[in-house]
Design goal:
The complex is a heterotrimer of chains A (about 550), B (about 425) and C (about 160). Chain A has about 550 residues and is α+β, with helices and mostly antiparallel strands. Helix content of chain A is about 25%, strand content about 15%. Chain A has 14 helices and 23 strands. In chain A, the strands form 6 sheets. Chain A has a 7-stranded mixed sheet with strand order 15-14-20-19-18-16-17, sandwiched between helices. A 5-stranded mixed sheet of chain A has the order 2-1-5-3-4, sandwiched between helices. In chain A, helix 8 packs parallel to helix 12 (about 480-490). Chain A is elongated. The longest helix of chain B has 18 residues, at about 345-365. Chain C folds into 2 domains: about 1-55; about 70-145, Glutaredoxin, CATH 3.40.30.10. Helix content of chain C is about 40%, strand content about 10%. A 4-stranded mixed sheet of chain C has the order 2-1-3-4, covered by helices on one side. In chain C, helix 1 packs antiparallel against helix 2 (about 20-30). The chains are: A alpha+beta (about 550), B alpha/beta (about 425), C alpha+beta (about 160).
Chain lengths: ~550, ~425, ~160
């Protein structure tokens, strides 16, 4: 473990740490483009040069391993001038696209040139023209070759992470062009990541193109609900420009670093799967069926109606199809209300889907729900399966079905079975966020918040419990499921009084053995595994969180 | 006449044939070497002061010693026959007229370092020479001079002649290795990728120029003292100078390495055409800073040339008389580097073409006075900050033209025409 | 195919044979197209992108279909000093090459202006197919062009 000095400060680092990472631990940022901690080191941008005592030339920090007694200077005049010169070279052929470039505001040419005062251009020559400008090279990615600084991060990503080798740098010298093989596309399941790692606006997101300027975006940590991997994400939401981006509040999702789950990456299905949050089919008002029609109603009316109908039947006549999209806290309340509170024994949660993309050997899992594991740990299902519940319902054994979220009529379940179950049941209560065929069959509709509109936690397939946070308020009159269940319990006079999700989680941790020892504080922002053994020491995250240029 | 080593028998018909080569003492050095201790041979090479004649001038015997003795990995010899440096054509002759001399040197070097597979990387345009060398390799194999159990010694060596595909950067050691591995010729970062440690296929590799290795059999035959005595204190033996430009007799001239430039031009290359005065001379390939007419008494060994502010480089000498427009030559050279930059790292990729654009503008009459200092600034900003030395090889000569002949550039800017062309 | 196998067999790693294989392909297929690259990539178990990177990096792999004879005229340093530019003008007239194009209309000649070919003592010089010619004068250019046959060159690399 060598000890070295950087800018006068001593630090001890593990073997083979490079100077950039060592400096990071001291809070010193060494500017760079081609280096990325999740990829192999290239050493070609020449931006990260530092001065090392006794070395005749400046050395690149990314390729220099720390050695015992090394003395590094990251901010001398020589180093600063070298950075300015490299920036000048990069800008010499860079098109003046800022006004029309999506990267503006998060562009590392902009950021560094402002930091280093490289304001004046002395380049009088014609800038080089390249073949592809604003051309889509895949379903999700646009390429502008003139903006490319040829750092090669995207090429290394496709070589090393997805191992699909779609991208290459062709040609020689400053006629080089980043491109796909003629006639091919960048269409692997993780293509959106190249946009994250491109430090400039060469690779941009087609979905996000011209939607909203990044300085209008707010950022909130969350977890992707697309599958049971639970990739850590950031939700970027539009704060100030509701008339941009088609009025969508959630503008995009970006991966968030977690060394245990997804490192720096997320898949495209998850990345682009946020549209449902602001889609036109969101249910924004509680509804009651009056006669043949579903009509808007108030929370008071619908909850009272729900409570009345629940009280009117025997618990053995109630079927509950919960949802592994619900948080741990919500699933716990489902159990508390229906199983413990009412004595209902017919609670399931999983519903086969008609088709999905399947899993892979990297991040994507076959289970397209974020909280299957959580549901299991909390003690669901009680019934054998959703199929059994529907069988019973179609036999007329159930008077009331409470369905959370699922569109049974578009699922992989036997459709005639679903039809007959719905037809045979007197009261169908639907609680979910987006409207669909099954919602149209409900008698009572309770609008719930999406994952982006509530806080709570999911448990991924490996048993890691991870927190989600509210990024935007629930749309219309929708409420987080835990609040709906809270109110419903009160309407059923169960005397609940949960003040917030942390309150629920605390009780959950006390009552479910697997969650014992966990708390929001312990979960932090990288999550924690079930079966946690608390110590008397202050909880320190198991690995330092890397702030990376993404 | 100074003693010739490498080109001694160039006028013997059929010298490239194995039989004729052997008649003139060929492969005697291999026989002798196979009976010596490898360390003893390496010592001879060191004491002979044989230096790298591809351009770096680094002591060859020392370089061989960088390869670790005990390593589980196979070791490789790579012969650099890429000869891309403008003004250089000596290796073309050595390959065409004395292929067996090179093979002999390769065998001895491999024997010393413990190498059993050698590649000769020849630039793709040298089709004729590649064919000749391949034929020579086949002849040697047929006579048990290559392959298994060479001359019954138990030592084995295989040789593959590899055709390049047109890229100057593949003359750079690690660029060559990348190209030999089937990739773009992007040089590697050093450290850690010094070829002696991590070279071809990630194995320890010796990489030497064609001419350097061609000297090896003669050192083995005649001894280190003899070779060293032909040269200067630090650089032994002869080198094959490639002389071109405004001389009457362009061609190769093998001379002791310390020969003065004036002698090369006037006593061997026939002097300047039409007896015109010399204006400038490039001493060691296009990457070497230019010498002016008052520097013709410089000796052509690496140390003397370095002291004169230039370098020995590839031994490519270009003589320019007073009809030469230096702006034209400077722009021409800068275009070469811009075309050949591999593009891997920022300063070289952008700097070579930026400088080239400025110089072309000055040449075409659209220059501004600031351009001269701009070009100087850009050249300086490239140097010392890149993965390999192509950028320095571009910057140093351009800087030398801009400083030594600044007046000509200023004239072009002020008058949008060339004063040299006007008066000739 | 036999040539391909014997080429690959000489190298410790298959990929190392790529440059010679592309030379072979250029002779066999006249023009290396993306289809040819994919074919080679498949044979050598390489991603097509890596083959394309090599193809576009090196000057000797022709990016466009060329005429029967490829003329490479050197434009660097000594050749430039000794009049390569006027040789170029004369050569263009001789073979009937008009401005803007690099291949003659009859498809016989492609002219490329190239960097130093390592034959500065022959300046100004050119390479036609695989042979070097120099020092050139307008008269010599005429004689060389007139003397060209359209049979395969004798000096092809084996």
């Amino acid at each position: 473990m060598p000890t070295l000095t950087i800018d006068g400060q001593q630090v001890t680092v593990p073997e083979k740490t490079n100077v950039i990472e060592a400096a990071k631990t001291l809070g010193i940022e060494i500017p760079h483009y081609c280096y990325h901690p999740g990829l192999s080191v290239a050493g070609n941008c020449r931006m990260c040069m530092v001065e090392i005592e006794k070395a005749p030339k400046l050395a690149i920090g990314c390729f220099t391993p720390c050695t015992e007694g090394m003395v590094v200077f990251t901010n001398t005049e020589k180093v600063k001038q070298a950075r300015k010169d490299v920036l000048e070279f990069l800008l010499s052929n860079h098109p003046l696209d800022c006004p029309v470039c999506d990267q503006a505001g998060e562009c590392w040419l902009q950021i560094y040139y402002m930091q280093h005062g490289q304001y004046e251009s002395r380049m009088m020559e014609n800038k080089i023209k390249k073949s592809k400008k604003a051309t889509s090279i895949g379903p999700h990615v646009n390429l502008d070759q003139e903006r490319c600084v040829l750092c090669g991060r995207c090429v290394r990503f496709c070589d090393e992470i997805t191992k699909t080798h779609e991208l290459g740098i062709f040609g020689r010298g400053n006629r080089e062009e980043l491109d796909v093989f003629p006639g091919k596309q960048l269409d692997n399941r993780y293509s959106g990541n190249v946009v994250d790692i491109c430090p400039v606006g060469a690779l941009t997101d087609r979905d996000f193109r011209f939607q909203v300027r990044v300085w209008y975006l707010g950022v909130q940590d969350s977890v992707c609900p697309g599958c049971s991997r639970g990739c850590n994400i950031q939700i970027h939401y539009n704060r100030n420009r509701p008339h941009h981006g088609h009025g969508r509040r959630v503008a995009r999702l970006k991966p968030r670093y977690n060394s245990h789950v997804n490192q720096f990456w997320m898949c495209d299905e998850g990345r682009y799967g946020y549209k449902f949050v602001d889609a036109g089919d969101r249910i924004i008002s509680p509804m009651l069926r009056r006669g043949a029609e579903l009509q808007m109603a108030t929370w008071g009316e619908t909850l009272a109606a729900s409570a009345e109908r629940i009280r009117a039947v025997n618990p053995s006549q109630i079927g509950v199809i919960a949802w592994p999209q619900l948080t741990n806290e919500e699933l716990y309340l489902v159990r508390r209300l229906f199983v413990d509170g009412l004595g209902c024994k017919n609670v399931s949660f999983s519903v086969p889907s008609k088709k999905d993309g399947g899993g892979d050997d990297f991040l994507i899992t076959a289970d397209k729900n974020p909280n299957t594991r959580g549901a299991g740990e909390i003690g669901l299902p009680i019934a054998d399966s959703t199929g059994d519940i529907l069988q019973a319902a179609s036999r007329g054994e159930f008077k009331l079905l409470h369905i959370f979220g699922h569109d049974l009529l578009s699922s992989g379940l036997d459709q005639p079975l679903v039809e007959s179950a719905l037809a045979a049941t007197e009261t169908v209560i639907f609680q979910g966020s987006n409207s669909h065929l099954t919602v149209d069959r409900a008698d009572i509709v309770l609008p719930s918040a999406t994952f982006a509109e509530k806080s709570g936690s999911f448990t991924n397939f490996e048993g890691r419990v991870q927190r989600i946070h509210e990024a935007v308020p629930p749309l219309g009159d929708a409420l987080p499921d835990w609040q709906i269940l809270n109110r419903m319990a009160r309407a059923l006079e169960m005397g609940w009084d949960y003040q917030g999700t942390e309150h629920i989680f605390k009780e959950l941790a006390e009552n479910v053995a697997a969650f014992s020892g966990l708390s929001y504080c312990v979960l932090g922002d990288q999550g924690e595994l079930l079966g946690y053994k608390p110590t008397n020491e202050a909880h320190i995250p198991t690995e330092p969180v890397t702030t990376v240029i993404i | 006449m100074p003693e010739k080593i490498l080109t001694k028998h160039f006028d013997v018909p059929g010298f490239r044939e194995l039989g004729v080569y052997r008649q003139h003492g060929g492969y005697a050095a291999v026989e002798k070497a196979l009976g010596m201790e490898p360390a003893a041979i390496q010592d001879e090479i060191k004491r002979a002061n044989l230096v790298g004649l591809g351009g770096a001038g680094f002591p060859a015997g020392v370089k061989w010693g960088f390869v670790p003795q005990n390593t589980p990995k196979p070791k490789y010899l790579v012969v650099n026959g890429d000869e891309g440096e403008p003004a250089t054509f000596k290796d073309r002759y050595l390959l065409e007229y004395a292929p067996h001399q090179l093979i002999e040197g390769m065998i001895i070097c491999s024997y010393v370092v413990g190498i059993h597979k050698a590649y000769v990387y020849v630039r793709g345009e040298y089709v004729k020479q590649i064919n000749i060398l391949r034929h020579a390799v086949e002849e040697a194999k047929a006579e048990n001079l290559l392959g298994e159990n060479i001359l019954g010694s138990g030592f084995h060596l295989d040789v593959v002649v590899h055709q390049g595909a047109g890229a100057y950067i593949c003359g750079e050691e690690t660029g060559l290795i990348e190209s030999l591995e089937g990739k773009k010729g992007w040089p590697r970062i050093k450290p850690p990728f010094f070829p002696a440690a991590i070279g071809l296929f990630q194995c320890p590799t010796v990489i030497n120029n064609v001419e350097t290795l061609s000297h090896v059999p003669h050192i083995v035959n005649n001894g280190a003292e003899w070779f060293a005595s032909l040269g200067t204190e630090k650089n032994g033996g002869t080198r094959v100078f490639a002389v071109s430009g405004h001389v009457r007799k362009p061609g190769i001239y093998e001379l002791p390495i310390g020969t003065p430039l004036r002698e090369i031009i006037y006593e061997h290359a026939g002097g300047v055409r039409d007896d015109r005065p010399v204006k400038a001379v490039i001493p060691g390939g296009s990457s070497s800073p230019v010498l002016t007419a008052d520097q013709l008494d410089t000796n052509m060994d690496f140390i003397s040339l370095r002291n004169a502010g230039t370098m020995g480089g590839s031994g490519g000498v270009v003589v320019m008389d007073d009809t030469t427009c230096m702006v034209d030559i400077c722009a021409n050279i800068s275009n070469f580097y811009a075309h050949e930059s591999c593009g891997q790292c920022t300063p070289c990729r952008e700097g070579t073409s930026w400088a080239s654009k400025i110089l072309n503008r000055i040449l075409e009459g659209a220059g501004r006075m600031e351009d001269i200092d701009e070009a100087i600034r850009i050249c300086r900003n490239m140097m010392g900050r890149t993965v390999c030395l192509l950028a320095d090889g571009a910057a140093m000569p351009i800087l030398s033209y801009l400083t030594k002949f600044r007046r000509e550039f200023e004239y072009h800017v002020e008058n949008s025409e060339c004063d040299v062309k006007k008066s000739h | 195919m036999t040539k391909f196998k014997s080429l690959v067999g000489q190298y410790e790693e298959t990929r190392a044979a790529l440059l010679p294989v592309l030379h072979l392909a250029q002779r066999a297929f006249a023009q290396i197209t993306p289809e040819v690259e994919e074919y080679i990539a498949d044979l050598m178990q390489l991603p097509p992108v890596k083959v394309h990177e090599v193809f576009t990096f090196y000057t000797l792999y022709r990016k466009k279909p060329s005429g029967k004879h490829v003329i490479r005229l050197c434009k660097t340093l000594s050749c430039h000093l000794l009049g390569a530019e006027s040789i170029r003008e004369h050569l263009c007239k001789k073979i009937g090459l008009h401005n803007g194009s690099d291949t003659t209309e009859d498809g016989r000649f492609t002219l490329e202006l190239v960097e130093c070919m390592g034959a500065c003592e022959l300046a100004p010089m050119m390479q036609i197919d695989e042979r070097y010619y120099g020092p050139l004068t307008p008269e010599k250019v005429d004689a060389i062009i007139d003397g060209l046959t359209d049979e395969p060159a004798a000096d092809e690399v084996n």
